[in-house]
Amino acid sequence: MSDNNTPETEIPGVEAAGQAKKGRPTPKRKDQEAARRRPVVADTKADKKAQRERMRAQREKEFQAMREGDERNMPLEHRGPERRFLRDYVDARTSPGEFLLPMSIVFVIASLAVPASSWAGFALIILFYVIVIGVAIDTWLMIRRMKKQFIAKFGAKRIPRGWTFYIIARHLNVRRFRAPKPAVKRGEFPV
């Protein structure tokens, strides 16, 4: 029989008061606070590098979406049915605006070959200005027609901000280099 004052089984590492030993001394308050202390200013060099890497990955994802036509991952300025309508309207047309840049390169090369004081040089300059004015008129007419069709389809309240510049930039770009990639063929615009 055992005595009531002594426990029958003794657990190693447990004192009489019922607390376990740590096996190390209690750390000082000063050391604990120093271990929790973080700098007020974060490590900007590492943070900037990580931020640049995240932004590069995001741009690559958006660029891939622009090439493939995946609207969910496109940049915000290209998303939505309104922007898709504007893009499709421009892409369905064959316009002189998309040929303006290649023609201007040809005119620059031709103007280097032909002296400006000759009759041919003067005619070349006049022809270039006529083409530029024709493209400007075509662009103006396209914007007017597009706005009427856009309002008929979506209403005047849903015109996207900056839509005119968006359309002009796409209209004057060569079809092959447009981003997002054209989704409709020429003449296939669904009105």
Task: Give structural notes.
With 191 residues, the protein is an all-alpha fold. The chain has a domain at 80-177. It is built from 6 helices and no strands.
Low-confidence stretches: none
**Number of beta-strand segments:** 0
Elements, N to C (H/E): HHHHHH
Q: Rg, please? A: 36 Å
| β-sheet strand percentage | under 5%
Coarse morphology: elongated
Content-based structural category: mainly alpha
Largest sheet: none
Query: Would you tell me the overall average pLDDT?
Result: 85
Distance between the ends: 101 Å
Number of helices: 6
**Helical percentage:** 40-55%
In short:
The chain has helices at residues 29-36, 44-68, 81-91, 100-113, 119-154, 163-171. By secondary structure, the chain is mainly α.
